[in-house]
Amino acid sequence: MIKKCLFPAAGYGTRFLPATKSLPKEMLPIITKPLIHYGVEEAMEAGIRNMAIVTGRGKRALEDYFDISYELEHQIKGSSKEPLLKEIRHIQNSCIFTYIRQKEMRGLGDAILKGEPLIGAEAFAVILADDLCVNDDDGVLKQMVKVYNKHKCSVVAVMEVPYEETHKYGIIKASSQNGNIIKIADMVEKPSNENAPSNLAIIGRYILTPDIFDILRFIKAGVNGELQITDALKIQANEGRVLGYKFDGIRFDCGSIEGFVKATNYMYNKS
């Protein structure tokens, strides 16, 4: 059973400057809820109640959001605005939140490794909050938990992207496929379209077995001088221990302005 979800949230969000100079990108709102709120809801739907968040300098808003705001709640108590806090109160009352800081921005792999004290020696989920995933039935992480419960290995969410965009993602090489489940033989971080082994890209949903921490300690920095989770997963994949899952649903890249606007329009029209 997957009990914990790790949220790497220490990045600078430079594509949204100057807003992210003081506001964490994970707190950018889609309608009335910040991105990380949607991520926590997705984890809760998958049966997870322990949320581990890797933060950095200037990210106190994340901790404050999942805490009680006594002054605000006192001011609106009994008013027509009080029901607006119903969803966040439910999260606060249902989940445990733990935090640790990533002191240097050394890549997603390093952020995940920094979360080890919050996770321990058990399999865990990872959600990148700026990848907003929406599905009318089971959420993406809930779908992936079902795959993990059956196969007991690392699982990564994948989707098809145009070949001219492979340089933005970790790209997998499949050895076999059974429906939506792909056995991964290899993967490469941010390849050019000429060198990409496929157009199946890893997006911001993972389920990782705990040995990933030992692998991350062992590997060297990769693309952009950063510790890449793709390089660690590649070692597991070479041993036949990683599955790709072509999820049902829509993914919005809210780390980009275009994706953020598309997500906002989609959620507004859906509401």
Note down, in words, how this protein is organized.
This protein is α/β, with parallel strands linked by helices and 271 residues long. It has a single domain, classed as Spore Coat Polysaccharide Biosynthesis Protein SpsA, Chain A, CATH 3.90.550. The protein is 32% helix and 27% strand. It contains ten helices and 13 strands. The chain has helices at residues 35-45, 60-65, 70-76, 86-94, 108-114, 116-119, 140-151, 212-218, 229-238, 257-270, and strands at residues 4-8, 29-30, 33-34, 50-55, 96-101, 124-127, 131-134, 154-160, 170-178, 181-189, 200-208, 242-246, 250-253. The chain has a five-stranded mixed β-barrel. Strand 2 and strand 3 (33-34) form a beta hairpin. The chain is globular, with a radius of gyration of 18 Å. The protein starts with a strand and ends with a helix. The model has no long low-confidence stretch (mean pLDDT 91).
Overall spatial form: globular
Percent strand equals 25-35%
The CATH homologous superfamily: Spore Coat Polysaccharide Biosynthesis Protein SpsA, Chain A
The CATH topology is given as Spore Coat Polysaccharide Biosynthesis Protein SpsA, Chain A
Named at the architecture level, the CATH assignment is Alpha-Beta Complex
SS elements, strand count:
13
| Domains, number | 1
Distance from first to last alpha carbon: 32 Å
